Here is the input.
Amino acid sequence: MKDLYAVAYEVKCRYIGKKVSFRGLIEYSNYCTKNCYYCGIRKGNSHAERYRMSPESVYEAARFAWKASYGSVVLQSGERSDRAFVEEIETLVKGIKKLSNNELGITLSCGEQTEETFARWKDAGAHRYLLRIEASDPAFYRTLHPADHDYYRRLECLKTLRKLGYQNGSGVMFGLPGQTVQHMVKDLLFFKEMDLDMIGMGPYVVHTETPLAASYPDFALHKEELLVLSMKMIACARIFLKDVNIASTTALQSLHPSGREMGLLAGANVIMPNCTPPACKEAYDLYEGKTGAEKTPEETMDELKNTVENIGEEVILNAWGDSPHYAAKDHTF
Ligand code: SAM
Ligand code: SF4
Here is the structure.
């Protein structure tokens, strides 16, 4: 395994450099109209305490990220597609651009939307979109979602985002009940086939108040197994895809206190420090043991900068941190 990580790290250094980009994560709201079987903030979880950040607190979080020189933010939310939500996100994107003199880059991760909505949000100033396919095998996808959650609609959304000129990010979870090595190999092939610019994938972590946990009461990979699986997937993705951005996710840190460093050393190059105010962060309860809920954005920033420096890497400040893969594409549409 050490050899695998070393090769992946070498590929990362060659294509990306010994550099890490930060994206300030803002968990805007946990209201969601969907019912993914694995997710703690699914509509059907009546125990989830719902919140929506006020525009002022979103701007405060974005201003913090800007002042901390993160260069870009990710605005993430449970999925809604009503008119009010579409307008809220549009206003927030415009507001974040304005407060940062157009300097902050904005990634959205707000689920499946119509082409019109994606276009509106792009016109407002968003330039990247993260929409995990969750499982690239349609039959396996169906085991993780209710019948009205359509794999092909999600796939179409990814194609639309590309057509509109967004930097396209997707990814999967791994360590899911019923998932095989073949599924994960297919996932890697899917990333290549979809010509993705960024990969945001992470371990599945059980949330007890979800149908997936109820269907598999005894299922929970040991943290150690899940950590190794995560590192393997990051390393294989880096070796296979070479010049894309790969995130070392918060879920990794919930498996091991140094999980994010380990992800970087296995080939990842992006970290998403959480800028959500602590009270909301706690309620954005996707899975058990989600770390850092009690930490302030300032504490998170200091901790992460140390993490990166400790492994001899440099943080890219005040830049959007686009992947070389995106930069190499022809952007004339
Ligand atoms: N609602 C949007 C969507 O689904 O694309 C964005 C927010 S959603 C909370 C972001 C990601 O959280 C999902 O793509 C999913 O992979 C991940 N997630 C949800 N439940 C999880 C769990 N139990 N373990 C690990 N990741 C989980
Ligand atoms: Fe909603 Fe996203 Fe969770 Fe699915 S994964 S229930 S769409 S927040």
The chain has one domain: 18-216+268-317. The pocket of S-adenosylmethionine (ligand 1) is lined by residues 38-39, 76, 78-79, 109, 111, 131-132, 134, 173, 202, 204-205, 207, 251, 286-287 (CB under 6 Å). DSSP finds 14 helices and twelve strands in the chain.
